[in-house]
Amino acid sequence: MTNDWTTLLRGVVGSHAYGLAGPHSDVDILEVAAAPTADFHGLRIPTGKTASRVHTSPDITVHEAGKYLGLCLKANPTVTELLWLPDDCYVERHPLGDELVAIRRTLLGAHYVRDAYLGYASAQFRRLRNRGTTFSSDTQARTAKHARHLLRLIDGGVQLYLTGHLDVRLADPERYVHFGHTVATDPVAGVRLAQEALDTADYALNRATSPLPDQPNSDTAERWLKRVRLQLLAT
Description:
There is one protein chain. By secondary structure, this protein is α+β, with helices and mostly antiparallel strands. The chain folds into two domains: 6-107 and 217-231, Beta Polymerase, domain 2; 110-207, no CATH class. It is built from nine helices and five strands, in the order E-H-E-E-E-H-H-E-H-H-H-H-H-H. The protein has helices at residues 15-18, 65-73, 77-80, 95-102, 110-129, 137-163, 173-185, 187-207, 218-231, and strands at 6-13, 28-34, 52-55, 59-64, 90-93. The chain has a five-stranded mixed β-sheet with strand order 3-4-2-1-5. The radius of gyration is 19 Å and the shape is globular.
């Protein structure tokens, strides 16, 4: 329960989920929760900015179920990974949350997966490319983290597009660590490697036919959301 919201699914995301956590890594929590159905008939409807709550110590981001679904249907990488976590990363699972995990593939559309993942990766690449070539140690650490994120976005997008499945836990974490270190310590070589990774992904997706439909199944998503609203009607 998040105050008056009912937790449907809560999990550890970020470096701990990816297998990249170090001894000083923060624990990041992502949650989808449902506001009482009655709240949607009052003056302060939980939509837009009010449909998300952010807490610190620990870092917890909570999205109301309706907003969460909207982000998922657009293949937002950050919220999508909550549905594909390794079992040991889930902290709390409501039966309705289990239902959401069960329909996770229907929330994917090939068009949105490609645009979202490679779009976010391209934006990350532009930031890295514009950083220059001389970094402080703090900037190097942030750059390495951003570079790892870029590579994960590329690989995750390609995997989702080609297979309709996402492995959040990285099979070869050292590859991402090495990539991040190269980008942070040798920006010229790092930018070249990042561009090659983007080009390779773009080439692969251009030649492939995704098993995913072009558009997500919004009808399935809406049926799930209506079940949530009905179950929480009296709360």
